[in-house]
Amino acid sequence: MTSTLNSRSQIALLRPPRERAPMSIHKRRVLESHSFVTSAAWGLFHSVHRSSSASSKRAHRRFRSDLDVDSPCEDGDDTYHDRPQFTLKSVRRSSLSRCRRMLRCTKEATGQKSSHHYYTDAEPKRWDINSLISSYLSFSHRTSYFLLFLLFSLVYYANILVFAFVYWGFSAYYPECVTSAGVEIGSGENSDLFGDSFVLSWTTFSTVGYGSVYPSTGANSDEALPRKCMIVGVIGSFEAFVGVLYAGFCTAVLFGKVIRSQSQAQVYFSDPLVIRYGKQELLSDKTSNNLDVESQDVELGETLTSIEESRVIGQNKNDVNITCPVLEFRLVNRLHDVEEGEIVEAQLDCVAIFDQSRIISTDSSFYSGECGINGLGTFTQSTNNGHTDNYPEAANASNGNDSNNQQPTAIFHSHNSKQNRAITKLTLESNEHPYFRRVWFGRHILDENSPLLSELARTKIKQNGGYWPAELNNHFSIRDNLHFRHVLVCFSGTSNANATSVYAQKVYDLIDVNVGYRFVPMNYHAETGELKTDSYLLNAISEQRGGGAEPFL
């Protein structure tokens, strides 16, 4: 099943029952293999890998046992894999091909106005070499290593061919100026004029100089050479100079790309956003004293309210003091099973982007924004200071936001829409983590201070004493009261492997929101007793406790 909005598509895939529980990647490959040969091969590899690395795993587990604070039971009664699970994937469709996008970037770099949204203070030069180099460097940082090496090779051979044609044209009129195997170029029995010119070009450009083809000089010629033969030496010296510069330029670009790759955080963000709501789903967040990152159902012998007690959420007249819904996303550390793969001093910053018409100004002050736009809207965002997050992945995470702070809403001009957009900061329950290793949840409470809700919903929550209204406690009302364009999540921290600052970001759209679902647990215990994380389940979701999930389109 798919759903589409603003060139964004979300694909929902029903997970097979045998693949719902967390497992090792080798065991998952065995289940996913449809061929008898590949399934047997992966099974054999899994058995050999498990037996050969058992001792090293035990030593590695003892080394990191003091750091593991994950709960042995992630979801209480292990009923999460009995419920239907879905894997959600986000796909962005583009109407521009790669060549057209590169052409548009080149036009913008050279000063050509490709759209009416392009602004400049002064008319730039048509061919600005600085802009071209900056555009190329930006492209090299964003592209893959394979495409970068391919581009290096194309430019390398293009330079060689250009100089080869120059040598070929000059040697056609003055063959005595170039010597090939001791004779004039092209005069040998099996010699080819262009082939010899190409050899002279690439040996000069790469500064290899085998000596088979070289410019003629007076010392190796019986007759006096014309003065025009000096042109070959000038061309060759200039080509060697270009070759040295090109080699250094490629080295610098590759070095910069490697440094930038190290600055990218090795984390995966979940594609879907989920909204959990209702007393039965959120009751464990208030009653559990040691809730782990996967929001387990039962902890320390405390039993949740029976699901059959109120199957239809919001229809029970006794549903008072309903906790506000929670919007969630999660991210996983790719190096969770690697020694020193942790990210220290990790931080999450989340902002929402929405239409300017959705802003309800709560401040009488105004300022002059970009492009002559005036206006300032503010939201008072508060957090539950009395609530303590005892999640294993966020046990020591602190709330870096003050409940009394007011987050200003900045107005900016969107390049793909005629309507102005606004941006405001979202408050997360725990936006800092001192030692991020496995799974981390980002949670934003949809209360009266949340800018993601409509004005009507915030007013009703405030009138209800800060609790969620019962008439809005269904997926239809929650979906209708969500008003935002994008949610931008920025992750930053310091890699424990190379002590460099790392960062990552993820953009969510309204199409990525799924109301009434919860994430499937990712942590599990291997046969050796070691705590592992199944990254394959990052985008896996299941219906929340008590039901009430919206259907997929």
UniProtKB/TrEMBL annotation:
The chain crosses the membrane at residues 145-170, 230-255. Residues 384-410 are annotated as: Disordered. It is found in: Membrane. One of its GO terms (cellular component) is monoatomic ion channel complex. Keywords: Ion channel, Ion transport, Membrane, Potassium, Potassium transport, Transmembrane, Transmembrane helix, Transport, Voltage-gated channel. Residues 394-405 have a biased composition (Low complexity). Its main location: membrane. SUPFAM superfamilies: E set domains, Voltage-gated potassium channels. GO terms for biological process: monoatomic ion transmembrane transport; potassium ion transport. The keyword Protease does not apply. It is a multi-pass membrane protein. Belongs to the inward rectifier-type potassium channel (TC 1.A.2.1) family. This is Uncharacterized protein. It comes from Cyclotella atomus.
